[in-house]
TrEMBL record:
Protein's recorded name: Acetyltransferase, ribosomal protein N-acetylase
Gene3D superfamilies: 3.40.630.30
Keywords linked to the UniProt accession: Acyltransferase, Ribonucleoprotein, Ribosomal protein, Transferase
Organism, as annotated: Sanguibacter keddieii (strain ATCC 51767 / DSM 10542 / NCFB 3025 / ST-74)
Domain N-acetyltransferase, residue spans: 25-193
């Protein structure tokens, strides 16, 4: 089984406050106690997230729906198949999620990555820092060789996050994922451990 991550925060990134350099945890393992905060964020930012995500049921965005989602994600984490994190703002509040899923060992040693931020937390580099921490987790703690990410053709914000983290585009996958109710083409990106 893969090494589980602690819920005490994983990777440090640097934030400037009052001219001082401060180290903050940018991601930590999602917890059952995050259900209320995640439900609130998903409801508040539903219209912002909708064009970039699968269609979400009414149940999914409730606290009970989020608790069920978190429990399923933690189950996959226990099995070594996923590493589900929350993205933390400088004050420690939950700002979004980043997840490594489909973790495969053996000759592939690869996983897929997905992420989102609350709209009012965008534009400050939080996603870029969270992805950096998740990628480091993939290559160090999990010992993987490759992290893959897919974006809609028009998702320039997400492509910026990947570019700032050294991801390279390797192709276009036609009708790859059902996003916003439609099978949509995606740009495919990867980062390799030796890059
Ligand atoms: C994708 C998503 C997470 C990107 O959010 P984001 O705020 O653009 O990304 P970051 O948090 O890394 O912030 C980067 C922005 O902050 C700016 N920035 C400020 N300080 C920064 C710092 N220290 N480091 C990096 N960027 C910084 C960057 O210049 C960039 O701004 P720009 O887009 O005007 O160039 C967000 O748009 C989102 O959640 N979208 C909906 C869901 C989604 O698309 N998920 C991905 C599916 S593939």
């Amino acid at each position: 089984m893969l090494q589980a991550v602690s819920d005490r925060g994983l990777k440090f990134s640097i934030a400037r406050r009052s001219g001082m350099l401060r180290r903050v945890n940018r991601i930590r393992l999602v917890s059952r106690t995050d259900a209320d905060a995640l439900s609130q964020l998903l409801q508040t930012h539903r219209a912002f997230l909708a064009p970039w995500e699968p269609v979400r049921s009414e149940d999914y965005v409730t606290a009970a729906g989020q608790l069920a989602d978190i429990e399923a994600a933690l189950g996959r984490h226990e099995q070594g198949a996923a590493a589900p994190f929350v993205i933390l703002d400088d004050d420690g509040s939950v700002a979004g999620r980043v997840t490594l899923s489909g973790i495969v060992q053996g000759p592939f040693q690869s996983c897929s990555m997905g992420y989102w931020l609350a709209e009012d937390r965008t534009g400050r580099g939080l996603a870029t820092q969270a992805v950096a921490a998740a990628v480091e987790h993939a290559f160090t703690t999990l010992g993987l060789h490759r992290v893959e990410a897919a974006t809609l053709l028009a998702n320039t914000a997400s492509q910026g996050v990947l570019a700032r983290n050294g991801f390279e585009e390797f192709g276009m996958a036609p009708r790859y994922l059902k996003i916003a109710g439609e099978w949509q083409d995606h740009r495919m990106f990867q980062r390799l451990a030796e890059d």
